[in-house]
From TrEMBL:
The keyword Plastid does not apply. Gene3D superfamilies: 1.20.120.1600, HAD superfamily/HAD-like (3.40.50.1000). One of its GO terms (molecular function) is hydrolase activity. It holds the Pfam family Hydrolase. The keyword tRNA processing does not apply. Keywords: Hydrolase. It comes from the Bacteria. InterPro entries: HAD-like_sf (IPR036412), HAD-SF_hydro_IA (IPR006439), HAD_sf (IPR023214), S-2-haloacid_dehalogenase (IPR051540). This is HAD-IA family hydrolase. Coiled coil: none annotated.
Amino acid sequence: MNFPVLAITLDLDDTLWPFAPIGARIDQVLHDWMRVHSPATAAMYPVEAMRELRVRTFDDNPHLHYDLSALRRLTLTEALQNSGAGMELLEPAYEAFYAARNQVEFYPDALDALHRIAARVPVAAVSNGNADLQRIGIGELFAFQLGSREFGAAKPDPGIFHAACERLGVERGQVLHVGDHAEMDVAGAIRAGLRGCWINRDAQAWPHAGLQPDLQFDTLAGLADWLDARA
């Protein structure tokens, strides 16, 4: 398929790195932190109980689904309050979480591919997550980072895609959004007027009849190769 790509918007979690190992590490890091700083909280909320509290907090607050940081703070607030801990521990606990959240392990192909892609076209991060590209150490590869928390709505809301295109100064049809999630990334971007590239590492079946990705690869390196071939 041949069409102009003047800029790329890029998902982060499960596109550049798998999130599952990060989530597991976060759970253990928080528990270990609580054992030192608030033993009563650690005793009341071992790893599985804290995970259940986090899921319930997410389910009970659909109006905050665009802001995962706020949901994490709500989870920590309830755990600290229920265990009789002081609220002065909230921000240090959040910082322990956030440091672990930004310790990522890239997919083997992803970092080299990202460098190659960023050398071709401007790349903007568009994510529903709360990763910090500066902490991770790849901020210089991106024109900017636009998160759902900052925008006020999460993908697949078309507004976040439109806002990214406006900041890039590129027409929507010449921006390629790249991500792993068939609905939130690819279908959402296409419905918003962008091109959509599915990074389908697990050979999943495409779920949307009548709507197809503009591009599909099983690695981010596949996209880098495609851009190189068209240069």
